[in-house]
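subagent[fold] <- orchestrator: predict structure for attached chain, return tokens only, no commentary.
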Amino acid sequence: MFGGGELGQVAGFWASRGLYAKLGAVLAVAGIGTLLMLAPFGGGTESQAACLPGVPGRAPQPRAADALRQDQIDFAKIIDEVAVQRGLPGKATLVALMTALQESQLRNLPYGDADSVGLFQQRPAAGWGTVSQILNPRYSANAFFGGSGAPSPPGLVDIDGWPEMSFNDAAQAVQVSAYPDLYGQHEQEAKAIAAAAGINLERPGDPYAGRAGPVPPVSPGIGAGGECESEGLVAGKPVNGVWPPEEATITDPTGTGGMVTPRTAAWVALAGKTLGSLSMSCWDAHLWNPTSDHPKGRACDVMVGTDARRSPQARAKGDRIANWAVSTAGQTGVRYVIWYGKIWSARRGTWIPYNGGGVYVPTDATGGHFDHVHVSMY
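subagent[fold] -> orchestrator:
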């Protein structure tokens, strides 16, 4: 196969993109995004949220350029080969791919923050190995998975209970990042790359293969194939925090003509910056449902283009939006999210079935939130 030197030396153009991606992890809320498509539709409170039909959303976000995507596929194959050789399940490969996408765009970077290098941005100073070792994709993948033959920092198999964690939390347990909630947003992209690489993410295996010492029992969980994970949704976790009440004092940046709270406006800006072009609307009078968060300027709806039950592309787009909203709730003040017949709240931290709150028909494309993602703020 090939090592870090053969696939890892990336042209300067992609290097600059990698640095931008790394810096972009800092959740700075600045300015209002200019890439928003405008389409009025509605929503409601946690128990009574649904929306009116809106204009179709735009097409799914463009894929990575061909050269970058081929590198990603090649590196994904190497990571999976290491996992297969060790007897690890396909879900270990998925966690590794999501991690590498966040850390390096799944590229073998010879630079990074401080002394970080490689696919997983591992640091020689932290004991992950020498620069030349870490720039060998097979070495760095084996180090990420951990175990008795890996360097001293704990890898995935050294984390008790990782199969029961969300994919995001399993990645964070290894990486110990200052931005712990950013890995989950890469699940769909990781799955797409795995599919292109011919990787079986459903492959069974020993989640603690190669671990030194006692092995904890494995029980089913979200990260190990629970209901929400199988549908592409990251469970998240309860979010504790104090979010002072805000009045709607800012003109809705999605162009409805209404007013929204500063917290909502900041969320719109960050969503546009992070997720790209979106068909989004926030304020709405919602005369038929006065308890809704929309007339209060505390809610936004993001269209996915069609009924996601009939479109894998729309489903993947909605999952990506919902997962990002959930994974960043602790920084943005998201109170709850409704998508694809389910509702997630910061207080509960898990997805449960959405019943329409006695106001809307949950089996309808709009009432059940199969054609848009609803996000309410504190």
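orchestrator: received. Logging for downstream: The chain has two domains: 31-61+241-377, 66-230. Confidence is low (pLDDT under 50) at residues 1-63, 219-231.
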